Amino acid sequence: MEHPFLIIGATHLIALMSPGPDAALIVNNSIRLSKEKALWAAFGISCGILVHTILALTGMSVLIQEVPWIKAVLQFCGGSFLLYLGISSLKSARQHHSFTTAPSEGQPAQPNISPNSMTIWFQGLATNVLNPKALVYFISIFSSVVTVSSSFTFKALMAFEMFGLSMLWFSFLALVLSSSSVQQKLGRMNAAILSLTGVLFIAVGCAILMTGLLTIIR
C-alpha cells in the first residue's frame, strides 16, 4: 500500500471523530469537572489507544480474539466499567441540575468532590482499553499495512502516529468544550448533556455485557 501513514492516519482521525464512549468521556469531564481534568482524560484515552496499537502490531490482539474466555473477561470488565461511568454521569447530571436551580431556603449546599488527575487518567485508559470493539478496529486497520516483515521502526512510527493523532483530537475537543465561551452558551443544557452521556455509557455497557454473555454461551 502506498502512503500507509497517510491512509492509516486519515482513517484513524475519522474514527476518532465518530461518537462513542471516548468522546462521551471527554464531554462529561469538560462539563462536569475542568479543562485540566478533561485533558487528563484525553491523555488516558490516548494511552489506551497506544496499548491497543501495540497489541495489534505484535499480534496479541488476534490471540485475545481467538481465546473465548479472555475475550469474555474483557467484555464483562468493559461493560461493567461503562455502566459505572454511566451511573456516575447520571448522578452528576442530577447534582448539576440542582445547582442550577434555586435551592430551597435553608437547604445546605452539597459539597463537590472532584476526583484527582490520576483517577481521571485511569478512567480514560480503562474506557478505551476495556472496549472490546477497539480490538477488532485495530486488527482491521493494521491488517493491510503491517506484515511479518515490517520493521520495528515502521511499527514504532505507526504507534506514535496513532497516539499523537488521538492526543491532538481529544485535547482539541477538551479545550473547546471546557472554554468559557462554550460553557456560557451551553448554560442549563449541561445537565441534559451529562444525562445523555450517561445514557450512552449505559447503553454501550449493556450491549457489551450481552455480547460477553453470548460469547460464554457459544
TrEMBL record:
<feature type="transmembrane region" description="Helical">
    <location>
        <begin position="6"/>
        <end position="27"/>
    </location>
</feature>
<dbReference type="GO" id="GO:0005886">
    <property type="term" value="C:plasma membrane"/>
</dbReference>
<protein>
    <recommendedName>
        <fullName>Lysine transporter LysE</fullName>
    </recommendedName>
</protein>
<feature type="transmembrane region" description="Helical">
    <location>
        <begin position="191"/>
        <end position="217"/>
    </location>
</feature>
<keyword id="KW-1133">Transmembrane helix</keyword>
<dbReference type="Pfam" id="PF01810">
    <property type="entry name" value="LysE"/>
</dbReference>
<keyword id="KW-1003">Cell membrane</keyword>
<feature type="transmembrane region" description="Helical">
    <location>
        <begin position="158"/>
        <end position="179"/>
    </location>
</feature>
<feature type="transmembrane region" description="Helical">
    <location>
        <begin position="134"/>
        <end position="152"/>
    </location>
</feature>
<dbReference type="InterPro" id="IPR001123">
    <property type="entry name" value="LeuE-type"/>
</dbReference>
<feature type="transmembrane region" description="Helical">
    <location>
        <begin position="69"/>
        <end position="87"/>
    </location>
</feature>
<dbReference type="GO" id="GO:0015171">
    <property type="term" value="F:amino acid transmembrane transporter activity"/>
</dbReference>
<keyword id="KW-0812">Transmembrane</keyword>
<keyword id="KW-0472">Membrane</keyword>
<feature type="transmembrane region" description="Helical">
    <location>
        <begin position="39"/>
        <end position="63"/>
    </location>
</feature>
